[in-house]
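Fill in residues.
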């Protein structure tokens, strides 16, 4: 067991660190192992040896760079430590560490913190994920294209064999993440991930969880900081001997979501320390923002004209408040559909219903503003003419449009969704 490798993490507070440098390809001849694959284990005396031998053989035959396999034993009480020590002695490029406490997140945090490899990965010991996806997983990190790569069982091109119970739980969990934390990645807990070490050095001090929520927390923080996450569809076969305690894990995940949501809402996470330096994608965002604002404004002008025509046509029959609500609802649906395609570049039917539902939520903000403005006008000036009424509605609609743009960009069509689509994922 090796414990003499010094931590690669910087001891200074994350908020004091300079911005991450621009991503660059790794050199063809690297002095250290380019890839360190961590296999976290707890009481895996039956699966550990066949897993590591199969992984070692696969990397030796197919991986074009030097590599290391690190077995991270977190407090096993069976023969797992002895097997890990024997494998480390027999297989070149194999290492192992032992932790005194349980927790997959704890094992990954410790192993990644000690590693000097520029690309860090992990996979589950049951090898549910086909190893053929390992090279596609780490290639975008080696080339400098992406910061993090994850396997996904929920994208087109994935082939998954598992029972309906596990399938339902997985989809519900990821759906809950999308609805509460507005994430753009599709599969938070597939045990098949990789990260560049310079990114891990900044991320790990921010991740509090040491259990199953570790993956989710790391991905959410990275995504909120604007880091690029690459998704790889994988072939995945469920392990019938899985020891995950579903109820306790689900409750811990819910608590983790609540804690992370509060931290993000209160601004307690120093996300600026994860931004890339000048010349990278982050430097191009203002241009993208300006382009989106112009297109959003054009769509907004068209939908406002549509709204006013509908309002004028409906008001004689329904009254001012009902006409306002109906006209705003119809124009909001059309506005969301137009912005989805023209402003934010989303095509196809995937996610269309979710986008419309979020767009309707943003519509409620506009409804509250315009209805409130009408109510205030009628209260303060009961005899106001139609021209004053229209002017009030136009002003309120402009304010609602600005809020809608901010909501659309940050929540309905977040920029990370576009980044993820441009990486070739679904």
């Amino acid at each position: 067991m090796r414990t003499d490798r010094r931590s690669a993490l910087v001891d200074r507070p994350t908020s004091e660190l300079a911005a991450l440098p621009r991503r660059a390809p790794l050199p063809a001849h690297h002095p250290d192992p380019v890839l360190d694959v961590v296999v976290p284990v707890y009481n895996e005396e039956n699966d550990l040896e066949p897993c590591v031998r199969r992984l070692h053989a696969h990397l030796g035959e197919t991986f074009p760079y030097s590599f290391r396999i690190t077995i991270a034993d977190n407090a096993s009480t069976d023969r797992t430590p002895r097997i890990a020590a024997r494998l480390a002695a027999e297989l070149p490029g194999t290492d192992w560490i032992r932790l005194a406490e349980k927790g997959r997140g704890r094992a990954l945090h410790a192993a990644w913190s000690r590693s000097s490899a520029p690309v860090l990965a992990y996979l589950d010991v049951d090898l549910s994920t086909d190893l053929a996806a390992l090279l596609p997983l780490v290639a975008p990190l080696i080339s400098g294209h992406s910061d993090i790569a994850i396997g996904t069982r929920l994208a087109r091109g994935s082939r998954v064999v598992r029972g309906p119970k596990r399938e339902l739980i997985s989809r519900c969990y990821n759906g809950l993440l999308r609805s509460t934390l507005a994430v753009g990645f599709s599969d938070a807990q597939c045990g098949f991930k990789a990260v560049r070490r310079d990114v891990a050095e900044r991320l790990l001090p921010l991740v509090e969880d040491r259990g199953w929520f570790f993956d989710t927390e790391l991905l959410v923080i990275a995504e909120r900081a604007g880091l690029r996450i690459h998704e790889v569809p994988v072939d995945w076969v469920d392990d019938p001997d899985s020891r995950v305690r579903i109820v306790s894990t689900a409750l811990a995940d819910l608590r983790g979501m609540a804690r992370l949501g509060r931290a993000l809402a209160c601004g307690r996470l120093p996300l600026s320390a994860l931004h890339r330096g000048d010349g990278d994608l982050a430097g191009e965002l203002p241009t993208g923002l300006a382009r989106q604002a112009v297109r959003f404004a054009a769509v907004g002008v068209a939908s406002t004209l549509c709204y006013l025509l509908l309002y004028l046509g409906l008001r004689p029959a329904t009254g001012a408040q009902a006409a306002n609500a109906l006209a705003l609802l119809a124009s909001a649906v059309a506005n969301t559909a137009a912005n989805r395609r023209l402003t934010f570049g989303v095509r196809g039917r995937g996610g269309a219903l979710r986008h419309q539902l979020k767009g309707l939520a943003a519509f409620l903000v506009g409804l509250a503003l315009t209805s409130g403005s009408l109510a205030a006008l009628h209260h303060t000036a009961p005899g106001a003419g139609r021209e004053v009424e229209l002017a009030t509605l136009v002003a309120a609609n402009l304010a609602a449009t600005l809020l809608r743009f901010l909501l659309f960009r940050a929540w309905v069509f977040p920029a990370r969704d576009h980044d993820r689509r441009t990486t070739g994922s679904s």
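The chain has a mean pLDDT of 83.
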